Task: structure prediction
Amino acid sequence: MPYTHHADVIGSLLRPKYLTRARTAYESGQLTAAEFKRVEDRAVDQAIAMQEGAGLDVISDGEYRRFSFLDQIVGELDGVTAREGAPVHFRNATSPGFDWHAPYTVTGKVRQRRKLTIEEFAYSRARAQAGSTVKVTLPSPVLMYSMWSPELSTAAYSDAYELFADTAAIIRDEARALADLGCTYVQIDSPDVGTLVDPENRELREDLGMPTERTLTEGMDIINSIGGIPGVTFGLHVCKGNYLSQWIGAGGYDFTAEAMFRRLTNFDVFLLEYEDERSGSFEPLSKLPDDKAAVLGLVSSKTTALEDPKTLVSRVHEAARYTGLERLGISTQCGFSSVLPGANLTDEDVQERKLELVADVASEIW
Result:
């Protein structure tokens, strides 16, 4: 299957300082909603212009209207209580890291209060150049594992997989509404799949009553239920965690590739982190079905160092041994600011150069 989005973007971008200040002022009552929206609009306009100027095949709004990539399932649901969830451990190669807790716990049947991405897409579509592909990102329903409590959540759900199924229905409904507006590319952000390669994260979920084998089967099927909307390309960003330049999981795709590629039949493209040795070899790409594409996250959004273009070209050709070139693309390994505080990479100029590098390498290869 020839793939056309060879220079892709994951989603989030570094928040401009003026946008962060405006959000703080709005939350403290110093800006009205209308005033804050004008600041958001300005930031999105600049993000779109920057990405188009960089030469990317896909653009996003930078997720500038969100606090985090998973706002849809953290801040806009009924059925949750403001109580911290299970500890999810973040780390990097040089520090022991820290535990992150979801700010909410599921205590009732989940229902969405409002659709968050309709404004995002409608505005970006109007601002983007004709022919630009505007991507919208949504979180995976299985990310709700971090908000599951065996003591409190079972009042509403017999087990976590019933919760995942209800959340998938909410996300699919949002994706369908986006399609009705003309959106042609929806990405599901899936740290839940990406971190299954890590024994520590698997143990956390097992202790919460989520057997790994069931997640690799029923869990994958629940994620798959989101896709399959006519006219929409569905991508799965298989993330290993990204918060303040730290990560949750380390390990190659050997553990998840067969289940992921075989069961996610409604997904067209898999966006895979491959920026360092944590992601293992390209060999699992041999399991990628002939009608699917893979975007290689070879450029790091966590570090300031600019990758060598020749090395990136070489790595793409190495991966192509398993798939052929025409089913591959390139991107950063993750967004630059999955949550508002961003990453250790704080320089917007470096961010732009990294995105230009993605586009330049794609142009050279394809």
